[in-house]
Q: What sequence folds into this?
RNA sequence: GGCCCGGUAGUUCAAUGGAUAGAAUAGAAGUUUCCUAAACUUUAGAUACAAGUUCGAUUCUUGUCCGGGCUACCA
């Protein structure tokens, strides 16, 4: 149990014991970290009880404080300041905490339970490469999955590939027309980029054709329908749906190029998936559900034969589920896929990492499944995140303002190289080690930048300003970690020592402020890890890790380990920094960020 | 129009209803005979507006203003 939880429980028990006739509930007890300007470590807020117990703050505070001092081993003293009971935690508590946990590589993790959760993330289209917005999705999905895993859940990472549809045919048509058989091999262009180039080519040609038709006096709306290249794309889609062999061949070839490109990017990003779903396999799945819904009377048919659900009673609109020609729409296939996922893994929870522009869609999806009586409905959770925008607004592929993911990765690696050389920190590394270090720093900075913000808030990225490597960044945390590793190397102490090295830590000297503050924040990690899972917010871990690194840097400045005042202090400080490094590694690892031992 | 989300230092972000709203950057001023100065120390600067609930509101409620999203027989 974390210290805060222990204090809450102790205070609740104490108040119940002291005032048996009053109705004290756990929710009334608030425990915060004591503000630095007051003496103490944790604070119990007395205000909620003053009226209830008809007590003055000073009287109640000293009653409660004395009781806690007597009945628990936790505290060495207390002070009451205007309605706040400030408790000081015993030094011996911190000492035994460090001894018990310093070499626990799983500190803060929960024991495995039988709760199955799927996290679907990335979910790209196969007609263009990944862009900066995808990166937020990918890092968020990966980190949330890892955080849920660390909290004892059984997690399946899933990726739903949007591999069919008119947008895919657009790239294919343009490739047929203009590529002269160009492939990633013959051009040296990464597959997803090559396909993306022809998607752009399609749009250019389309624009030209529409303009030409308009020049011949056609109305704009008409011209947009009549443009030959668009009609070709639509014809190709019909052929695809009819399983035309040539079209399917081309489709498989071009998608193959894209997958190879995506795999390279995923590998560089350090993310993975347990299960791939392909829309070409699942896009017909929802139709049975619609059939059943019609029979149950949940859905209705309009005069032209299209199928709808009426959600007006729930404050939403009518929603189309099958077109008049019987073909399915996006929602239809999502219904089917939701059921498929549920049946595949017997999921308790199914998390969709999708941008907030689809809030309405996801709300409707869950509601329809509920009305259809599907058991998968309750577990559906939309992890909605704000989109990454440019200072000028949204990224638009048509306007060429999209920041490409691969470019961004390269740019970050280049930047970390430049900064490392500028700081003159390249000595003592092999060329290979340096390459790896630049990648660790560059990708770390990128991930941290995108994860440190509350997911639901939209964020603005200015490509003209490079992502910082100073301040509230992964680099700061990596540097603190590298410093610790350096000390341990010099002390001949392993990074992950076994417990025999620190059998008994006697405490004849009081802890300094710096030592105590570091121990205090280390102890909070399990609570932070739990909160990150509950809120599904990796930013919680980023904030915590930064704060811990900051505390360490400040500690490092004021305390020598090599020249500690005595052996006892040296041992204590070694325990502190070993555990600091271990927790930083753990927290950042969950975010997909590596910490170098030297930088 | 309707529905949803956001508005905190110049900028980018924090703050289970709790003390004088924290950081980081950019600005100003310092720290290297000492374990990595990618660091540390000091300094200045903000809750869009107005009511309400409360002992106490950045947080909850309502209204106004500003920004974004959604509201397709597109995906």
A:
């Amino acid at each position: 149990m974390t210290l805060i939880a222990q204090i809450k429980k102790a205070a609740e028990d104490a108040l119940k014991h002291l005032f048996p006739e009053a109705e004290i509930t756990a929710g009334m007890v608030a425990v915060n970290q004591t503000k630095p300007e007051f003496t103490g470590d944790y604070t119990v807020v007395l205000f909620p009880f003053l009226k209830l117990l008809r007590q003055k703050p000073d009287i109640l505070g000293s009653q409660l404080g004395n009781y806690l001092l007597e009945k628990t081993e936790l505290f060495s003293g207390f002070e009451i300041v205007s309605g706040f009971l400030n408790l000081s935690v015993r030094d011996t508590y911190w000492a035994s905490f460090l001894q018990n946990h310093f070499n626990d590589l799983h500190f803060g993790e929960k024991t495995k339970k039988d709760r199955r959760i799927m996290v679907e993330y990335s979910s790209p289209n196969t007609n263009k490469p990944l862009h900066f917005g995808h990166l937020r999705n990918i890092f968020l999905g990966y980190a949330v999955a890892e955080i849920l895993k660390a909290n004892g859940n059984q997690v399946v990472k899933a990726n739903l590939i949007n591999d069919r549809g008119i947008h895919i045919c657009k790239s294919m048509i343009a490739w047929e027309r203009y590529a002269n058989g160009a492939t990633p091999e013959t051009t040296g262009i990464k597959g997803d980029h090559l396909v993306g180039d022809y998607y752009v080519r399609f749009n250019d040609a389309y624009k030209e054709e529409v303009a030409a038709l308009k020049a011949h006096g056609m109305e704009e709306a008409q011209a947009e329908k009549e443009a030959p290249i668009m009609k070709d794309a639509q014809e190709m889609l019909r052929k695809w749906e009819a399983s035309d062999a040539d079209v399917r061949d081309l489709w498989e070839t071009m998608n193959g190029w894209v997958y190879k490109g995506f795999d390279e990017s995923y590998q560089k990003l350090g993310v993975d998936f347990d299960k791939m779903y392909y829309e070409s396999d699942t896009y017909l799945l929802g139709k049975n559900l619609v059939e059943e819904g019609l029979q149950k009377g949940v859905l209705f048919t309009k005069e032209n034969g299209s199928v709808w659900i009426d959600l007006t009673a729930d404050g939403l609109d009518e929603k189309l589920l099958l077109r008049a020609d019987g073909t399915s729409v996006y929602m239809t296939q999502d219904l089917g896929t939701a059921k498929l996922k549920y049946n595949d893994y017997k999921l308790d929870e199914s998390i969709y990492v999708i941008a907030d522009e689809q809030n309405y869609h996801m709300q409707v999806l869950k509601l329809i499944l509920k009305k259809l009586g599907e058991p998968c409905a309750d577990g559906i959770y939309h992890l909605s995140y704000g989109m990454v925008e440019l200072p000028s607004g949204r990224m638009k592929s048509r306007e060429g303002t999209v920041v490409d993911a691969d470019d961004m990765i390269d740019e970050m690696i280049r930047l970390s190289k430049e900064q490392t050389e500028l700081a003159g920190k390249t000595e003592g590394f092999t060329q290979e080690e340096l390459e790896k270090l630049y990648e660790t720093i560059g990708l770390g900075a990128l991930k941290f930048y995108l994860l440190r913000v509350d997911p639901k808030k939209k964020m603005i990225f200015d490509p003209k300003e490079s992502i910082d490597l100073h301040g509230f960044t992964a680099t700061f945390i990596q540097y603190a970690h590298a410093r610790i590793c350096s000390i341990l190397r010099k002390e001949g102490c392993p990074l992950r020592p076994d417990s025999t090295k620190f059998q008994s830590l006697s405490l004849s000297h009081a802890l300094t402020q710096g030592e105590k503050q570091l121990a205090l924040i280390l102890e909070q990690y399990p609570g932070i890890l739990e909160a990150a899972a509950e809120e599904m917010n990796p930013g919680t871990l980023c904030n915590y890790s930064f704060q811990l690194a900051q505390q360490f840097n400040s500690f490092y400045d004021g305390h020598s380990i090599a020249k500690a005042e005595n052996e006892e202090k040296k041992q204590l400080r070694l325990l502190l920094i070993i555990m600091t490094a271990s927790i930083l590694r753990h927290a950042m690892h969950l975010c997909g960020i590596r910490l170098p031992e030297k930088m």
Observations:
- Chain A has a mean pLDDT of 93.
